[in-house]
Design a protein that fits this description.
Elements (H helix, E strand, L loop, with lengths): L16 E2 L10 E4 L3 H5 L1 H10 L7 E5 L4 H6 L6 E7 L2 E7 L2 E6 L4 H9 L5 E4 L19 H8 L7 H14 L6 E4 L6 H16 L1 H10 L5 E4 L7 H11 L7 E3 L4 E5 L15 E3 L3 H24 L5 H5 L2 H15 L11 H12 L8 H4 L3 H8 L1 H9 L5 H13 L12 H21 L13 H17 L1
Parallel strand pairs: 1-5, 2-3, 2-7, 3-6, 4-10, 7-8, 11-12
Antiparallel strand pairs: 4-5, 9-11
Helix pairs in contact: 4-6, 7-8, 10-12, 10-13, 10-15, 10-17, 12-17, 17-19, 18-19
Amino acid sequence: MTRLSNASTEMLDARILRSVYDRPQTPGVVHLGTGAFNRAHQAVYADAALEHGDLAGAILGVSLRSQTVRDQLAPQDGLFSVTERSGEGAVTRLVRSVNDVLFAPQSLRDVIDALAAETTGLVTLTVTETGYLAGPSGDLDLASPAVAADLKGEGAPLSIYGFLRRALHERKAEGRRGLTLLSCDNLAANGTRLEAWLDQFLLAADPELAAWTRAECRFPSSMVDRIVPATTAADRDALTTRLGVDDHAAVFTEPFSQWVVEDAFVGDRPRWDAGGAQFVGDVAPYETAKLRMLNGAHSALAYIGVREGWVFVHEAIRDPRIGDRVERLMRKEAATSLSPTPGQDLQTYADRLIERFANPALNHRLDQIARDGSEKIVQRWLPVLAHHQAADRPCPATLDALAAWVVFIRGDHGPVVDPLANRLANLWRQAGAKEIAAALFGRGGLLSAQWTASSVNLARLTELIHDESRTG
């Protein structure tokens, strides 16, 4: 089968949607952490912006750890398809906004040159929560091997900070403008955090560059929302029949997409609003609602659903034993912990989330969502528990979900994929079911910085863990 590329686009089925514009030869955006989410989200908005004349909006993707994405996209001239699935069918679009993808370990100089180029004004990131290398305290972990190596400035960079340090140093030395550095990861106040972590790194490595970066660069926060399950071989095979060509970089997603971006850029902002992005003065109300309601519900579905033997989100949400609990978590606990902005209807948002979770055409795996839980629950659940505990209100659904996570990290359902997997396993061995809650969330516990459980909540959580351990 012929592979998708510039030369083969004429072979595409006529029903495939596509934008019409002359592709810029030089990208204005460098994206660190190119993967399926970036292709199904940011690249789609960029495609619309390019069609509306934003010639600086083309993307150079950089894969930091795996050459798989480079190998998927480079032979296809950066082209790929995005298929939106719902109960009513599927709609496929050709996306042309990614000019090229580099694999950083093999193209170090090219990556630095792109980040430092005069034509580059924007660097976006999807490196997951773990890619920022923050420690349990919330500060940058300067002792982590990657950060420690990059502070020395010798050899190839191992972290985003190492790459940015070299590029910003060159921009400063050449008298070029600063960059807009935009995190697109599921972190509350992601722009503020990226700015703080990069500043900590640069203060330790090059204080003069730290001062220049604070003065010349901008770090807008953003909220991204689109469910993008992992693409399967069966997905690709079925798509090949529809497309008429073979697309190794195809992604599958839901019809819903949202992007809320703080309006704080160096120079002109991108025209992502042509694709529906919202530029606002304060992202916080949107990102907090998404983290606590959507992401919080997703994590609850994952850990409770895996325990009950389900594989996909749409299966778990339709199980009344799970669905009712998750709906309470969203409406009664997460939503009531928020301060919405005018016009932000959280109950309507919850309605929409339940519809999205129940989409039978979107096979979003629970074990995919369950990864890296220690990084996620501190943002999704613990602030909700802290808010209600301060008002002496119970949080039964969130406590149930937390107990399911605590039992999950014992490893009963297979290897635990988590940056703290070894420490969590050791805690389980040392504490057992009776003391694990206190070891995690009691005073001085491993994850107690965001929420130190009261004696009542600690007792209830211990009881739930004991019950789940006995029946799991």
